[in-house]
Amino acid sequence: MSAVALRLHREAQARLRRNARAEVESLAESLAAIDAIVLLADTQGLILDAAGSGAFMTKAQRVALMPGIVWSESDRGTNAIGTSLVEATPITVRGAQHYVAEHRILGCTAVPLRAPDQRLIGVLDVSAEPRHIHAQTIGMLRMAAQWIEHRWALDVPDPDIEVLRFARDPALLGTHREALLWVRDGVIVGANVSALRELDRGGMPMQGSLLSERFHPVPAVGGNAGILRPRNAAEGPEFFAEWAHASAGRGRTRAAVPPPDVVDIVPATDAQTADDELVPDPQRDRLLLQAVRVVEAGMAVLIEGETGTGKELFARALHARSRRRQGPLVAVNCAGLPEGLIEAELFGYEAGAFTGARRNGQAGRIREADGGTLFLDEIGDMPLPLQARLLRVLQDRRVQPLGGRPRAVDFALVCATHRPLAILVAEGRFRADLFFRLQHFLVTLPALRTHPERDHQIGAWIDRMLQRQGVHLHAAARDALLRHSWPGNWRQLTTTLRTACAIVGPGGTITCEVLPADIGAGTCANTSADTAPRADGTADLRSVADAAIAAALASCNGNVSRAARTLGLHRSTVHRHLARGGPRSRA
């Protein structure tokens, strides 16, 4: 396979790769002593990534066991990758068990990877000399596969899906052994193996059943699920439960690796999660009402504003108030898509349209938005050739997928940008005809520092978050928050408050000590020595970070996974804090 075709395949499998990368590398390191390699392949048996022993990698490449090669059973005969996909079960193939004679230098064991709806998403393989594929190697591989499936289950692309995690032992929450349910509007749409093992006992199909048919009491979405009992058990067992993912980003667990996943709907930002998160603002509410009327008249709305001012939140509120609210809201970040794939992503393609195309083709985001709203975020970063195609779609209300015939579409269009499009037009980087088509109605969201009711807005938001978290605020810290310029706008303010609430815990008091050093340095210097600037003008960030991690560990009774989730960190960061002798609590 050519390098270009492999890159396209990898980009199309970005979600799988980003959720598997950490486990592939970790497993390769663990198996370094036996000169093994770890391989990740897609559902067609195409090897996407390889890591591990350089010496054995060279040997494997002699028989084409390398990225860019398909190891399906139909192409290669009996082999661990291809046969495990056909059988949909873990498979070990040693030496002469391989069909092709040249492959008998290999010992391979593979585990198919599944999504919570039980469809195959790929396969993980370990290959080494046949004598090294023993029970311990197989056990390590299967544990790595469970972690990949767990990461995938929490990395939900659909903002309407919630993830309920539960376990008999609360220590298992946040680990690959917890049970997970995907829930949309109270209906279970997916479950991992642990959930099936715990609940699938009465013959009732798990997928498609109501959450209320499984649990009593029924856990309220987004709230603290607490203690649950399955309805099919008279006296128990009891499960400890919590919501791992709430729609539109509330507490969402995200992968630490940042490559864009071109098949995912872009989630809302952490600060702007739902319409009820908005602080009442008469000026914005008036614009929102006018914008609803504009889109219902068949015209586009363009939202301008700095990063963090709530552009996506405005778009979601607009969709929720329009007559199209029963249809889909499809959000696409034009800046987050690889330029080589954005055309196929937006307009779709038919089967066989290009090398690396999906077997059944792809509808494209514009067709997915049919009957609903298409939200194009960062429209200013769309390449010029694609701007011309988008303009034609808006004029004809028809979209032509690559290699296919035109299809009629009906959607409302909302665009957003943090860059002034008028300047981009003057510079020749944005089409003037598309600009005039988009700016039927322009919404400009003010930066927080320039908002005409700045102090009132900030104060109202602070009070709302404190009330929800059950946390108090020291007068000096409040003054520091009100006086800060907030270059990151609402997103920065919200993140700062959430972090501070996590540090002090329920019932605690936020003081200047727990605020970032750059917020109200003058005010904070009078109430805290921990974050005071040093002689060189910088802050002791290590002590601030250690204090935050220690406080989170204390509030979570030493549970590293929970503390990491509370702070929005990866577990490895907390472990590094403990490894260098960081305190477990602010004793």
The termini sit apart by 59 Å
Mean pLDDT: 78
The profile of the biggest β sheet is: 6 strands, antiparallel
Morphology call:
globular
What's the CATH H-level superfamily name of the largest domain? Answer: P-loop containing nucleotide triphosphate hydrolases
| Shape-level CATH architecture of the largest domain | 3-Layer(aba) Sandwich
CATH topology of the largest domain, anyone? Answer: Rossmann fold
Number of domains: 4
Estimate what percentage of residues fall within beta strands.
15-25%
Q: What Rg do the Cα atoms give?
A: 26 Å
CATH classification class of the largest domain: Alpha Beta
Question: What is the number of helices?
Answer: 21
Low-confidence stretches: 246-276, 526-540
Question: If you had to describe this structure to a student in words, what would you say it looks like?
Answer:
With about 575 residues, the chain is of the alpha/beta class. The chain has 4 domains: about 5-155, 2-Layer Sandwich (Beta-Lactamase), CATH 3.30.450.40; about 160-250, no CATH class; about 275-445, Rossmann fold; about 455-580, no CATH class. Helix content is about 35%, strand content about 15%. The protein contains 21 helices and 20 strands. It has a 6-stranded antiparallel beta sheet with strand order 8-7-6-11-10-9. Strand 10 and strand 11 (about 240-245) form a beta hairpin. Helix 20 packs across helix 21. The chain is globular. The model is unreliable at about 245-275 and about 525-540 (pLDDT under 50).
